[in-house]
Amino acid sequence: MFKAVIGAEKLKDSIESISTLVDEARFRLTPQGLSVKAVDPSNVAMVSFDLASDAFDSFEATEGELGIDLTKLNGVMEMADKSDTIELELEEATHKLIVRMRGLAYTMSLLDPSSIRKEPKVPTLDLPAHIVIRGEDIKRAVKAAEKVSDYMSMGVRGDTFFMEAQGDTDSVFVELRKDQLIALEGSDAKSLFSLDYLSDLSKILAKSSEVTIDLGKDFPLKIRLKIAQGHGDVGYMLAPRVESE
User: For residue 173, is it within any domain?
Assistant: First the structure.
């Protein structure tokens, strides 16, 4: 059983935070809320998403899984205004999801959860550098880096967090001192990442006033932020491109 009511803006933010990496996902339902863990088709990036029941105006659910085509659901949500209230209901007899808004009812076929990749195990990484930064600052650096390269480094050196990209002829370097960040802790680190992924993620991160980043030397990047007006948590993990010596 699943029946819920939620503000359209919260739901849009939630779906976009997952669909930036995958087109379909298993939504795990519990009475406490819903969650998703998924890895992109290239096994380069992972998303971990949790939305608590208190994010909803009303929420009823029993333990279960829903397989959802995120592209289709995003398309449905395009018909909603930010101020709309969205009603979601699982029609158990037909195993379809009914989405209602402003007199419109959209009945959406669900995917068989077993046809979707299983939830990945989220590795535990103790990374040496910890940064808290405005999402808009990341988006700005990514946008600049895209003009010169396909990859961007992130790193910590002393009391400075930096992002840089090296092209064949041009380069970009963005430097933020500790007093320009929300927080900076730990030791020196640096890793190189694909801008294809960082560009997609930066669209989500830019909406947040506080993004947490954990970095190591040639280790995956960990990103965490709050969404859905503080009721949801999303985390991303992005594998590095290890440079040959």
Answer: yes
Tokens of 119: 């939830």
Q: pLDDT tens digits for 6-20?
A: 999 999 999 999 999
Query: Is 15 inside any structural domain?
Result: yes
Give residue 45's pLDDT: 97
For residue 119, the model assigns a pLDDT of 87
Going by the DSSP 8-state scheme, the letter that residue 139 receives in this structure is H
Task: Read off the pLDDT band of 245 (50, 70, 90).
Answer: very low
Q: Rounded to the nearest 5 degrees, what angle is found at the Cα of 192, between the Cα atoms of 189 and 198?
A: 115
Q: Looking at the structure, do residues 11 and 109 belong to the same domain, yes or no?
A: yes
Residue 100 tokens, joined = 């209602």
Distance CA 53, CA 32 (A): 5
Q: Cite the DSSP H helix spans in 35-184.
A: 70-77, 135-145
**Do 86 and 149 share a domain, yes or no?**
no
Same domain, 101 and 8: yes
**Could you give the angle at the alpha carbon of 44 between the alpha carbons of 43 and 45, nearest 5°?**
100
